[in-house]
Design brief:
By secondary structure, the chain is of the alpha+beta class. It has a domain of 186 residues: Ribosomal Protein S5, domain 2. Helix content is 39%, strand content 22%. The protein contains ten helices and 13 strands. The strands form three sheets. It has a six-stranded mixed β-sheet, with helices on one face. Helix 1 crosses helix 2 and helix 1 crosses helix 3. The radius of gyration is 21 Å and the shape is globular. It binds alpha-D-galactopyranose (GLA). The site of alpha-D-galactopyranose has 10 residues, from helix 4.
Amino acid sequence: MLDTKDYTYRVSAAGRVNLIGEHVDYCGGKVMPCALGLKNTVYVRPNGTDLLNLAWTDLPDKVTLDLNNLRNYRTLKHAKYHAGCAAFWREAGHRVVGCDLLMDCTVPFGSGLSSSAAIEVSTIVALAVAAGEPYDPVEVALVAQRAEHEYAGVNCGIMDQFASANGRAGHAILLDCNTLAHEFIPVALGDCVLVIADCKKPHSLVGSKYNERRAEVETALGMLQKHLPGITCLADVKPYELEEYRKVLPPVIHRRAKHVVEECERVRLAAEAMRKGTMSKFGELLTASHRSLSALYEVTGRELDALAEAAQDHRGCLGSRMTGAGFGGCTVSLVRREEEEDFKAWVSERYHAKTGYTAEFYPAELADGITVEKL
Ligand code: GLA
């Protein structure tokens, strides 16, 4: 039983599922993530010292961070996120006070549902409320992203931290990652539901492969800018322009860029389909996105392909794709409500037969990003 008495606030930030717009956030594209009911919760109380005392409900570790020494903690396994958040929140001009933080995370680690963004965002908000300061969720997301870059070594885009900080229950965020302009689209699925499935493949090297993809699309941008001087990011490139300059790109770089420009177009169509309630179209776009991530961007791998394909083959499934960075993690599928249980059994059986892994399903409750409660 969690002993949370004597804490002052309970602060939560959400994990996320991205509906569509994968590997385009760092190319200035639009994405469509939703905040989930899976959360990292921080119980916090100021302690009158210069220390952050960290404890976890599901880890035996206890870590103390000295606020005067935050640069020294980049190699810590779990606490590096908190150290980075405290360092950059303070650097952004905010007061950080010593406090005790007890973490309780229901976002499964390594599932591609952004447990790290949930940890970062909830930590920053906990530090803000402990210091009695207001916070702006967009600024929180940007500081959290910086912590991920500089303390976790993943050169991520803004999608995860933004969704974790700004999500709204029952909605997807249509976020322009170039300008951070965003709108909320009600997720009205008619007679369908979203099903999130974890391929459960233990994944390593996600960060290094992710950074490699980022470098490849930056190469593509640099090469294309010589011919299209007006573009500032790959999302500015139209599919026909990419084909026109196909020859100037090495084949692998062309494949990466093709995924990005076509995925941007799919997001536009998906937002339109969601607004109109055309679920068959939305589902087709999910499947097309997965195929592109598999064949052109090469971030799926055998397990995610097997999981998505088992889903796509079920009669009640309108579309299925990997969500998040890839190389393991989860798929999201659009499934007719009355077929949900049959779908799960079908996918589990086929996926296990093909890979030997047992898929796990998580509830796709679409919740608010941040919640703060005074205890
Ligand atoms: C990870 C990153 C995001 C985004 C996705 C892929 O989740 O943190 O910024 O790039 O991968 O869409």
